[in-house]
Amino acid sequence: MKKHRYIDFLAKLAVDNAHPGGHGLTEAIVDRLSMRQKSDILDVGCGTGATAVFLSEKVQADVTGIDLHPVMVERAKARAKESRLSPKIIQASAEQLPFQTNRFDYLISESVTAFTDVSYSVPEYFRVLRPGGSLAAVEMTIEKPLDEENKRAIESVYGVDDVHTETEWLTIWKSAGFINVEALHANKLLKQSKDILPTYNLTSQIDEEALEVWLEHLQTMQVYQNVLTYRVFTMTKPELNK
């Protein structure tokens, strides 16, 4: 089975805000991090560019978005050109960020890190953040440890190497050097009690495989509705000499 079928599916549907909580959660994260004007922000896994453009216009910051999928990058660049304050869009991997150390004040990653090798991506996040910088990540999380059969069922649909509990995620972030790590439920951030759904922009690229993946995703969400959830993780990189 092709590992990146789910990511290809998102690209074919040109899904905006393709993360749990949607745009409403993005707004809540921006408010929680108190992002400053003229700061440097990195959007890891920017997808169609919806969050990168929003950050550019709302925060009036210097925003860079990266994504590995060429179709996503193409759409993000097109969206950026239509923005008043165009973010910079680059095709790159979260596991090997093409930026100097201590480059960004903020890093946001919305439903991306779980699809990477965290032994590479998370240390890269830490490296490119400036001392005192903040990170927010929205990540797929399981509510309890699963047996191998159920883990494989989820991993095969989304093409991920592993699924993590909240405790496991906290260990991953802290092991990379982050401090003040918090795991938040969406209802602690969202003003509304329900999630805002992502926007699907149907394109001519929709094919039988995309519809098959969509059905698998819906079935997985139904079967594991009380197990497969998500968290918002916030954290900071320590100041120097601390």
From TrEMBL:
Domain Methyltransferase: 41-133
NADP listed as a keyword: no
Alphabetical keyword list: Methyltransferase, S-adenosyl-L-methionine, Transferase
BP GO annotations: methylation
PROSITE patterns, per the entry: UBIE_2
Keyword Transferase tagged: yes
The protein, known as: Methyltransferase domain-containing protein
Domain of life: Bacteria
PANTHER family with a match to the protein in the record: PHOSPHOETHANOLAMINE METHYLTRANSFERASE, PHOSPHOETHANOLAMINE METHYLTRANSFERASE ISOFORM X1
Catalytic function, reaction form: phosphoethanolamine + S-adenosyl-L-methionine = N-methylethanolamine phosphate + S-adenosyl-L-homocysteine + H(+)
GO molecular function, one term: phosphoethanolamine N-methyltransferase activity
Pathway(s) served: Phospholipid metabolism; Lipid metabolism
Entry-linked CDD domains: AdoMet_MTases
